[in-house]
Amino acid sequence: MRNFFLSSLTTPPRENKSLAAQLGYCFVVILIILIVISMTITSAYTSVLEQDRSDALQATAVTAALAISHTALQEGMKFPMPASTYIISGHIYAYKINIYTKAGNSFLRVYTSTPADTVSSNQYTLDGAGDEYRKAFEMQEVVITARSDKTGSYVAGVAPVIGVEGTVSGLVEV
Amino acid sequence: MSFQADQQKGSESSSAVLKIIVLTLFAVVTAIVAVSFAANHMRIGFEKEYRMQVNLKTEQLAAASSLLINGDEIAADPAKAQTKYANILPAIMIDSMEKNQSRKLYALYSYSGGALTLLLKSSDTGLLASEIPISGWLTLGITNPYIIDKNGQHTVLTPIRDSQNKVVGLFELSSTYAFLDVYGNAVERRVLMSVLVAVTAGISLFSLQYLIPGIFRLARRRGVRY
């Protein structure tokens, strides 16, 4: 074993062995470079796409909040705007819009754009709402946050809704 | 005889050096071509995705904004509408102000007597509504927005109607993505520099298989001599 190791170190590769080593080496190096480059470019452009999607979420949340401002937030209410959409890899998806009012320490959903999950059939409270939701409500800020429930995980834009009295009466979650 | 052997050995050595140079050049060119092709292919795909995303976002935002703008207010008192929407529109047009992001440009016009009057604008440059003849389109009763896509800018012109369905204003919203070219060029340049460094490092490591035996032989000869 020692002799083999020493002979491979003391004798440079020649003829077919040399050619195979050179070709193999070139291909492996190019493959590694391509993988690294692919990861670098993907990461660079993904951050740009994510930032733009975040902006779109916030803008959609603000327009939705403005559209229902100075109206009463209650079960059975209608959302006055057409469904907004977004695009990923050529496929268009509709934003899911939820409207909540403050209920004690949590938020009670009074409207959802999901057809199969109407408010009357399924009363829903944001028990697991993070501090971002409270911040949006109390500080009147538009925030981007992540939330999970039994149906899945979401990235959401949350905007406060100004009520009839001129104070915050609820939240719009896009 | 000895002279001939020396000459043959020198010729073999030159041939080996030439082979190494050709192989090195081949490796560098292959790596650069492969990476340029891959980087450019990925860049085109991402830019297409980004443009689609920004264009759809601009159209959706323009449609939502035009629903929020009250045509009756513009028709009744343009000055009052100007003050009101100067506060509302900046809140809707959220701009991350990130260096590598699209920029939003918007303007609100009142429309009467076949002419547009500027009520408010977010920028002095890049607004197109006043430069193109859209009066005919505005009065046709078409509900679809007027879209202009050129020079790295996607512009959506949306008519504002009053309660009588009469066009009383125009909302212009543009997203510019001129930064994409600069960003893409910078990414490709950085990638190619990385490739050059990687290939140089690869060739240096590859040459070790020829250098190490030479060093071993030299060390052995010295061991014998001393």
Topology summary:
The complex is a heterodimer of chains A (174) and B (226).
Chain A (H helix, E strand, L loop, with lengths): L1 H9 L4 H53 L17 E4 L2 E4 L3 E6 L2 E7 L18 H8 L4 E7 L2 E11 L5 E6 L1
Antiparallel strand pairs in A: 1-2, 3-4, 3-7, 5-6, 6-7
Chain B lengths: L1 H67 L2 H6 L1 H15 L10 E10 L2 E7 L13 H4 L7 E5 L2 E9 L5 E10 L2 H47 L1
Overview of this structure, please?
The complex is a heterodimer of chains A (174) and B (226). Chain A is of the alpha+beta class. Chain A is 40% helix and 26% strand. Chain A has 3 helices and 7 strands. In chain A, strands 4-3-7-6-5 form a 5-stranded antiparallel sheet, with helices on both faces. The longest helix of chain A has 53 residues, at 15-67. Chain B has one domain (1-226): PAS domain (Beta-Lactamase). Chain B has 5 helices and 5 strands; from the N terminus they run H-H-H-E-E-H-E-E-E-H. Chain B has helices at residues 2-68, 71-76, 78-92, 135-138, 179-225, and strands at residues 103-112, 115-121, 146-150, 153-161, 167-176. In chain B, helix 1 packs antiparallel against helix 5 (179-225). The mean pLDDT of chain B is 83.
